[in-house]
Each structure stands twice: as structure tokens, then as C-alpha cells.
Amino acid sequence: MSPSTERIRSLSLAGHAGAGKTTLFEAMLHAGGALNSMGSVEKGSTVSDNDPMERARGHSIDASIASIERNGFRIHLVDTPGYADFRGPALAALAATDTVAIVVNAANGIEHGTRSMMAHAKERGLARLLIVNRIDAEGVNLSALVDDLRAEFGNECLPVNLPASQGHAVRDAFFQKGGDSDFSSPGEAHQQLIDQVVEIDDGVMEHYLDKGEDALTAAELHDALEHCLRDGHLVPIVFTSARDGVGVAELLELIERILPCPNETNPPPFHDDKGIRFDVAADAGKHVVADVFKIVNDPFVGKLGVFRVWQGTVRKDSQLLVDDGRKPFKVAHLFRLKGKDHVEIDEALPGDIVAVAKVDDIHFDAVLHDAADEGRIHLQPCPFPAPMFGLAVEPAHKGQEQKLAQALARLAEEDPCFVVEHHAEVNQTVIRGLSDLHLKLMLERMKSRYDVEVITHPPRIAYRETIGGKSEGHHRHKKQTGGAGQFGEVFLRVEPLERGAGFVFSDDTKGGVIPNQFMPAIEKGIRQAMDAGAVAGYPMQDVRVSVYDGKHHPVDSKEVAFISAGRKAFLDAVSRARPVVLEPVVDLEVSIPDPSVGDVTGGLASRRAQIMGTDSLRGGETLIKARVPLAELADFPTQLKAMTGGQGRYAMDFSHYDTVPPGVQKKLVEAWKPKAEDD
User: Fold this and answer.
1) Cβ distance 134 to 106 under 8 Å?
2) Nearest Cα to 475, choosing from 546, 557, 532, 550?
3) DSSP-based three-state secondary structure for 333
4) pLDDT tens by residue, 438-479
5) Whole-model pTM?
6) Residue 671's CB: how many other CB atoms inside 10 A?
7) What is the distance between the alpha carbons of residues 223 and 197, in angstroms, rounded to a whole number?
8) Is 648 helix (H, G, I), strand (E, B) or coil?
9) Who's near 477: CB < 8 A, 6+ residues apart?
10) Contact between 20 and 242 (Cβ < 8 Å)
């Protein structure tokens, strides 16, 4: 029998690579009774790392899902990859859970992944939990690490238990006050927690100040705690040693007792087609609303759509709709996942994470529902890192073009940060991802899963084009070939928009000089020009175009004429609007031994880097923060390894697009030779 919604919990494990998330995931499943024995990352026997590439490399590449049933509770766990190269599946999975547990390696302290995932969880309004893992590692200073966490993420980060017996046990500090600990004391930690929790509610705080803690009812404390977790006013810190099982059973108990259930969390931002917020409620009796956060194209099972139920009850053999579709699909089989295994179930309640198979229309971020009047509800997209690395690919064997296209499409369905582009003007397929490693592993997966080999060409940087000023353009398209001709004339204005604004098109004509039915053709021509680029062959962005005048012919005006006129009028305007090439700029964090600081900062300066600051880390290391054009980092990993004796580590995230220097733009423009077109 399914537990009630109030007894369902969902937790995603996130953080930096090497923090021990997969081992903790395994330990939690074992302690919760879902596994008879623990597997290990080293042996490739964990539930989470079930892909052959994950087992071979010893780290997660994709998000993995399993659940625990104990004490009348159901706990859904999601293990996410820690490397920034595979951030897409990690961020997608976070949105499906009510709490994000950021796992911190006690030996390494706060790392890039710790910061980025904490920031993302906070931005999405998710409850957060900090798990300090490997507390029994030699030489760790857990008291100093707690101070670092509070300094970095705020005083709302407080321990709810404490390590004891030199990291071989933990002591509860939320429900108990006594006992020994390796630092601080359970009594002191308990008092800090109560003071933090009660101040969220004036009534509870007044009652506490007047009568003391013992006078607070369980309901008062629960409601105040729920409010604190939902608003980020409390970020609990817990301690574990996953490999030895220390603190794991205590963690499961805390998940059951203090973490939010589905009706105590901030629901995701659903909107209707007018942009008005649509509030979902974790009510099993309402219409179904669910969100697909993961797609798996299994060669044996077919397409698998993994989704979180936010409202209503999904039952086997029921009918569901996908997005705005009007043709329902039957839920012939409903699965709960345990790594690569699928356990068939009869129903899923609000808060459950389940899957359906063989539904062609299902896709990432699809909204599933069972009410036709809710067909225009959409989930506000999660912000994903921009795929900045590109590779041109072509099949290694002739006749496999269609097979390659299908394989790439299936891979793109699974990873929101893996993008496939086809550049028609040069008949070239380009794949884009978050790093060269990301692309390499996607191609390996394609070879092993779909038996498609490719030839790759040097990576292309995702440059963009825009304009620096206002201008006007004009073109008259006129062809006479014996019969009916072609005629269309367009006058338009262009002006730059702020970075990231995209493209805005408006019809400012008067008096019907261009009939309304030809405006989409003009816009189509402009978009063609923007996709192909105007000065260096890269897509254009952040441009406003307004058509203000033109002419048409009652017989000869056709859609094709206005497509051509719109495209060439736009290019005419751009040529006088100070066109510029934009390059992607990344935020770079480099952890290096102290003696290497001079070499590395000097090397970064030669790459047009802007050094944003340096921080001293424990263990004789320095963290360098810099902002660098992506084009300058092609050989950076190799040079970093040489300068630091293999001890340097780096991570980067997309920051923004910025104008390239004149010399760089000149080279890019000269390298692009657009094909001449017949008018």
C-alpha cells in the first residue's frame, strides 16, 4: 500500500565531483533496506553508476533514481553527476525533488560544485541540506569547515547533528541536548537551532520567549521548521562517512522527521499560456499535473519518460495528455526506478517520481495532465549552462547519414545541454556541449548504443553576431521570367537590444503598402539572414527589426519575393549598423598549489583573462577566480597540468557574451566567405 503524500520525501544528492555522492546514495539504500549489501564505485557495482562508461570511469555521468520504503515512509533519492561537464542532467533532476542535499568532502572543503549547486538550489526556492561526508578522513578540521560553510553560505547553516568519537559516530542535536561530540556540544547546537527556527514566526517566538522551549507544542515547532526550510532561513548541516555507514541511518531519520513533504515545499513555477502563474497543490484527488525531467532512450525498453507528480494521482491504465496535445496516451505500464531496474507499480501520488515507457510524444520538460482545460500549462524552463564547445561531425561510413541524425536526436532528448545544429549553408552538422569531455562521452555513448561512428572536425567556438548602432535598409526584389513575375520591396530599420534579449520583429507599415499576409515572409527572410550571419557566418542576436514601408504588386507579389527582399534589406541595414562579433566569456575557477600561482596567473593574463580575485585554501592551495574568453582556453588543461605538475584543477561556467577585439573580428570576417547568391 502506498504511503500518504505527507509521508513521501524526495532528496537529490548534488555537489562537487569526488564528494562521495554515489557512495552515500548506495549507503542510504542499504541502510534503508532497499539493498542487501553495498556496492562500490571502484568495483563498478553501485546502483547509481549502471552505465558501462560510468563504471569504466568511476564517476557519474547521468542522474540515477531509486527509492526507500521504511517506517511507513517513501524516500525518493536522486544521485546527480558532480562534474560540471554533466551539469544538464544534474540541474534537471534537482527540479524534481523537494530538498537538495549538497554533499561536501570534508577533506577538500568548499569547492566549485558546492557553490554552484547551492546557488542554483537557492535560486529555485528548494530546501537545502548540507551533508559533510568523509568525516573520519585523516587530518580534517570539521569545526573549521562548519565555520567556512557559514561564512560562505550564511549563518542560517547550522548543524543538526555533530560528529563524535573522532568521526566514527554522530550525535543528534535537534531532538536531543546531551552527549559528547568532537567539537561544540549537542546542547549548544540545539540552542542555536531553536533560536533560528522560532524567529521565523513572531507568535512562536513570543511564546518561546515567555514560556521557554518546553512550552512549544510539536505543531508549533513543525510549522516553524517547515517555514524555515521552505524560505531558506535554515540550512541544516549533517555529518556522515558514507563508506563506513557512519551517520547514514541518522540521516534517514532526519529526512523522515524534519525535511519537507510535497505539500510543505515551494511548488515549481507553472504558468498558463498567458504567463499567469498556475498553482499546483499536492492533492491526490485533483487533476493530474506532472513534469518530465528525464528522458532515457533504452535500446530494449524504448523511450522512457521519468516524471515527478505534483498534483493528482497517476494510475496504471489511466489516460494522460502531453502538453497541448489533444490525443491522450494510455499509461499501460507505470514504473518506479531502482537504477537500471524498473519496478512496475499501480499508482503514483503527489511527490512520487515514476516513469512511463514507449510514449513517442513525451519529451524533456513536458507537462503531463489529465484535463483538457489544463493543456496550456507549462513549467518555466530551468536555466541551463550554455553549450559552448562545438564539434562538426559526419558519419564515418557512407549511407549512415539518417542513422547518425536519429542517434544524435535521441542523445539530445536525454541531455538539455547537448545540442545538435545543422548548418544548411555549408551542409554541416555541429554538436555542442559543455566541454570537450562532454562531447567525447556523448559520441562514445552513440557508438556503444547505436553503433554509429563519426569523423569529427576541429571544435567551433559558439561566436555570435550583433549590431552596435541603428540603421535603415532597403531592397527591391524583382524578377520577370515570361509569365507571372516576382516582386516585393521592403524598407526596414534595425537597432541593437541589450545582451540576451534575442530578436524582436514589428510591422510599422501604414496604409496597406505591404499586405499582412506577406509580413511572415519578410520575418522569415530576416531570420534566415540572422541564422546564417552577416559578417562572419555566426548567428545574430539581440536585434530589433521594424518594417516601416514597402511596395507590392497585385499580381507578381509572392511569398518568395518578400522572403528575399526581407533578407537582403536586413543585410543592407546591418552593413551600416556597426556589426560586431560576440564571443562567449566564462567564469573560471582554478585550484592550484601555492608555488604555481605566479605561473598560472601570468598564463591567464596572456589569454585575455580578467583576474577577479584569489582565495587561500587549506592544504597549501590557492583558488584563482577569473573571467576568460572561451576561445583562449583550448589548450588550457594541458598547460595547467604542466605548470602544476598535474595538481591543478579547474571548473568553468558560462558568464556572458562580449565583443571580440578588432583584430580577432578581422580574422573571423576574413575566414568567412559566404556563397554568392543569385538574385
Assistant:
1) yes
2) 550
3) coil
4) 899 999 999 988 899 999 987 678 889 999 999 999 999 998
5) 0.78
6) 9
7) 10
8) coil
9) 486, 487, 488, 489, 561, 562, 564, 565, 568, 679
10) yes
